[in-house]
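Dear H.,

Thanks for agreeing to be a second pair of eyes. The structure we're designing against is below in token form, covering all 119 positions.
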């Protein structure tokens, strides 16, 4: 009986984590939000804005490399164009939020005000 309870808890722990602690959803964003993962690094709510997101991502990596150093593994970034998408991951006020080593959620305010990224 104790083994069955332990097995059940083992199986339910990830489900509870995804349901109760929304930032964990960064690990599998397509399951929780209407986003499309283009590759391991970029997930986006509005695929029509992919060029803009990719430019923002690349510029950010260059800025970090120039000021701090390069990444061992480039982070996954989820680009949300709507507040609903952003709150799906548990965030509603910040322009962007880092979730440990799992990824970054960029909300609507985190996009540049124009369609081109400038430094």
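And this is the sequence the design step returned. I haven't edited it by hand at all.
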């Amino acid at each position: 009986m104790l083994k069955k309870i332990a097995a059940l808890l083992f199986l339910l722990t990830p489900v509870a984590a995804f349901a109760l602690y929304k930032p964990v959803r960064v690990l599998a964003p397509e399951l929780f939000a209407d986003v499309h993962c283009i590759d391991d690094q970029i997930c986006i709510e509005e695929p029509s804005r992919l060029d803009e997101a990719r430019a923002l991502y690349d510029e950010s990596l260059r800025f970090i490399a120039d000021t701090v150093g390069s990444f061992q593994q480039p982070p996954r970034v989820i680009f949300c164009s709507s507040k609903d998408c952003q709150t799906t991951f548990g965030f509603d006020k910040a322009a962007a939020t880092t979730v440990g080593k799992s990824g970054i959620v960029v909300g609507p305010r985190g996009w540049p005000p124009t369609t081109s990224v400038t430094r």
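Two observations from my side: The longest strand covers residues 96-99. Residues 115-119 have pLDDT under 50 and may be disordered.

Warmly,
E.
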